[in-house]
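One-letter codes give the sequence; the fold follows as tokens. An example follows:
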Amino acid sequence: MAVKHTEEFRREAVRIALSSGLSRTRVAADLGIGKSTLGHWVSQYRTADLSVTEPQADLVRENERLRLENRVLREERENLKKSHAVLREPKDMRFAFMWEHRGRWPIESLCRVLQVSTRGYRAWVSRPVCQSQHTDLKVLTHIREQYALSNQTYGRPRMTAELKEAGLNVGERRVGRLMKLNGIRPVRTRRHRVTTDSRHSLGVAANVLDGDFLANAPNRKWAGDISYIWTTEGWLYLAVVIDLFSRRIIGWAASDRMKKDLAIRAFDMAVRLRTPLPGCIFHSDRGSQYCSHDFQQKLTEHKMTPSMSGKGNCFDNAAVETFFKSLKAELLWRQTWPTRRQATTAIFQYINGFYNPRRRHSYLGSISPLAFEAKAA
């Protein structure tokens, strides 16, 4: 369906064509019209009175020239930002970049920035798609799908593992190249702040775990901690329990107050899901919630061995800190949470719908906690 242009648009197009000093082809491309259409308008209005006096006409011509020049410069600057990495790629990849962005910038501008010829680009477009390009398009489709399923968190290594599991024989270099060219990159994270309140007079257990986060079977070593999430209603506190064998979240609880019952609720969930073996180590920081008499009594009831981090050393509980960092970077920091209930629901879905069953862990050989447990069974 043909686009109907207003009389004012036609006059401006003719004025630019006659005064800018640019070629008709370039002006037509910039304005999104055909060259023959522009030529027809110029012929139609060349002898007509454009209702502009001679002094005004000079000013208009200069303004239009500068405006168009600025537009061209802005386009080329944006092209350079987008195509900086592409300049180091073979011509076929540069042509593919041009094809993907052909609707945003003029082809002549892209050719100039990417240092290729328009003739070469036209020849590339007219050639049949080779097998390698077919494969790239197929892999790229899978990459986009897995990128969305991972909540935009997977980088090259995890993405490659995901594609191989889907049956695609593809290497990290190819995956990295396609992700880079198409602007697919994991969301950057922020540093995690530790806020453990150890200013209390309660008893502190020895560091039995001593930085050894490896376990040779389930229910031999557990770890727990509490973190915080900001919502519009106020702080939401989250306690979790992790089995260090598979890094699976086996217990968790959320509350608007950071009291000892929060840690106990998460622990009780873990006990209902699992049956801890006598002597199973439960490692935590020195927070008052874990040092409380009630929590320590729970450990005694289940014949578990308490273990606590060194004073002020967050690395002594690195496995749980890593989970909290992933949760915040991959879910919580991406939006504002109006209510605690909404944040709690999202955390539930993240743990049970993604982290435990799907998220790949480099520590586990790039498989999920549930898959790791099934493999070990």
Notes: The two ends are 63 Å apart (CA to CA). Residues 32 and 103 are 10 Å apart (CA to CA). The chain is about 50% helix and 10% strand.
